Amino acid sequence: MQPINFDRYRNIVILTGAGISVASGIRPFRGQGGLSDEIDPLQHSDCSLIETNPIAIWQFYGILREQLKTAQPNAAHLKLAEIEERLSPNQQFTLITQNIDGLHQRAGSSNVLEIHGNVNRTRCSNLSCSITPFSDSESHDRALPMCQICGSTLRPDIVLFGEQLPVKESWLAKRSLRDCDLFIAIGTSGTVSPASSFVRSADYAGARTILINLEPMAPKNPYFKEEYLGCAEEIVPLIFGSM
To answer: Which of 44, 77, 104, 116 is catalytic?
Structure first.
């Protein structure tokens, strides 16, 4: 396993999934040790619950908010932030994350696209409301929070099952892939959207494509040309090396 020479690349795109945050104590939805082994995510994460049972959303994601009060970025988060900081001005670095934990920003990463939102923000469920999403660490698992402007239910600023990805972040992610020459997916299966479509776009652009994950792809995604198996917090510092 040879460290990557980042000096060779001009448009670097990183995609991260739940596997990168496991070492920080954040359990994934699916896969080994995933929450789906114990609960049905649709009972707490489906968009229909906004109308039918919004407190169920808070009861589930409030637990994550409490965990994030003490969780810390791990070696993989920190290495990504280090690499971004050390790149030259003529190099582009885009970090697309499927995670909602905000650990990349806490590690020091700056150009982060949160395509599934951030659980530490709260917004109004009324799309016509003028309130902007705001930082919020309260769990709200006992009393349903209400918007002070329009009186509608407040909700975590995340993408629930059945909702579309945010337009701005999706557009910026796709734009970053147009001229991508290095694409690395970390802690994500690589077989489902958006990982599958992102790597396909990167491959079409002629990029070097790498998957770093705990488990091998099943079925294999042909657009990933390299695959390194292991814990993200161990593999990322090794393969990213130093600049």
So the answer is: 116
Cis-peptide into 166, omega within 30 deg: no
104 catalytic per annotation: no
Cis peptide before 28 (omega within 30 of 0): no
Q: Lay out the sheet containing 134-135: strands in order across.
A: 134-135, 117-124, 154-158
* CATH of residue 103: 3.40.50.1220
pLDDT tens digits, residue range 207-237?
Answer: 999 999 998 888 888 999 999 999 999 999 9
- Residue 36 above 50 pLDDT? no
Q: Identify whether residues 152 and 223 lie together within a single domain.
A: no
State the amino acid at position 36 in one-letter form: S
Peptide bond just before 194 cis, omega within 30 deg: yes
Please, are residues 102 and 72 in contact by the beta-carbon 8 Å criterion? no
Claim: this prediction has a pTM higher than 0.85? yes
